[in-house]
Amino acid sequence: MRIQTSHRSYQYEDSRNPGLLIGITDERGVRFATWSYDDSGRAVSSQHSGGAGLTQIAYNADGSSSVTNELGKTTVYRYQQIDGVKRIIAIDGEPSPNCPASNSTYTYNDRDLVLTKTDAKGLVTNYDYNDRGFEISRTEASGTTLARTTTTEWDPNRFLPIKVIEPNRITVYSYDNQGRELSRQSTSR
Q: Are residues 171 and 163 in contact, defined by beta-carbon separation less than 8 angstroms?
């Protein structure tokens, strides 16, 4: 019997940032993933072998980040410090023939949880949470005839949904003592 082994190696060759992964070489000895970083240790690019999937990140003077994908389309992420945590407050993306603009804005509640999301079409999604910070209600396209609300009931002691009520169905879950799902029953409404 012949034993086959494979070897994958990981490169950390950036002298400025020796703890950051900059490459992965596969079992054939081919470097198939590469990352690069700026002097502050922030990622500035990611790509696969031959430049496939090249993604570049620029850190703008106003604190936003511009991410350019392999098709040359740029998305700008805008942030705000909320209670000492950097949160996304807006995403502005370029449209292309196969993808609409990905513009979105976000607001947060006093517990730093997403309160609203407004998409590129101006549709607002409202979120509500329980005392544990778990989402209990989400209304998409709020205030319109397209409004769609989903509510979730949670296990009182674990991060496990026990009932999800959607516009067209209700799903009930059960779990064992270790939190493994035992059953899931969906019924139409």
A: yes
